[in-house]
Amino acid sequence: MDPSTLARLEAWLRYGEDLGLAPYFLNRAPNSAPMATAAPAPAAPAPLAAKPKAAPLPAPPAVPTRAATPTSALPLIPHPPARSLFDVSDRIENDTLPRIRDDIGDCTRCRLHQARTQIVYGVGNPKAELVFVGEGPGHDEDVQGEPFVGRAGKLLTQMIEAMSLRREDVYICNVVKCRPPENRLPEKDEIATCSPFLFRQLAAIQPKVICCLGACAAQTLLETNQGISRFRGEWFDFRGSKLIATYHPAYLLRNPNAKSEVWKDLQKVMSLLGLQPRKR
Ligand code: SF4
Q1: Model confidence, pTM
Q2: pLDDT tens, position by position, 37-63
Q3: Total domain count for the chain?
Q4: Which of 108, 136, 185, 254 could bond to 176 as cystine, CB 3.0-4.6 Å?
């Protein structure tokens, strides 16, 4: 850049800063974006009464236009690519499961802390290829501090073993970490408060497959209000993992006829992970 162009650019930057507009000069438009008409050159700035150091500023130079100036000569200030909302809100560099547990602490962030016995964080292989996500702890989980240890949990363990895996091969966790009273569904605000920890758990593990057990987990991760029967057994992309939803084992205890549907879903998971059914 030649000295006179540089001087004009610096005058523009000082002008913007004195007006309190910095960093308005960050041009986030891609280089190829057309600029059909030139912006009119602004008039000389009025003296700023509130700024004692406001020495008379030079009249700002005319803004070079893309039509009149080759792209390579435009005074664009490079900037890093914008981060996604997920990157900003959820992803933490080098996050680990112990660190997330530490961050949860003795959590009182939502009302579910009031009736819990203990926080039920998650259990299993921190490098698991397969993660099961349920909705929240029940009575047995609340007492033992481990997810899926009651009757529904025993059924889940049988399902895992039928896939020729062991419980300790996978990771198991819930959307909310404290037991909702009377085993009710977690409320929306409780899910919103607690689910960032689940997102961090999933980001730290980076499994190949996430299997949502029941509507609450599926609707939370897929950000939908649709009923699970609308999308059960279908594959979705979720932040680098494949996600599938199936019925909750507690539902299977009440509706044993649905077991065949769930087994079909689990076979899809096995196929993706290259697993063979356990020989009986
Ligand atoms: Fe905290 Fe989650 Fe328990 Fe609510 S459910 S108190 S957010 S750990």
Answers
A1: 0.70
A2: 344 444 444 444 444 444 444 444 443
A3: 1
A4: 136
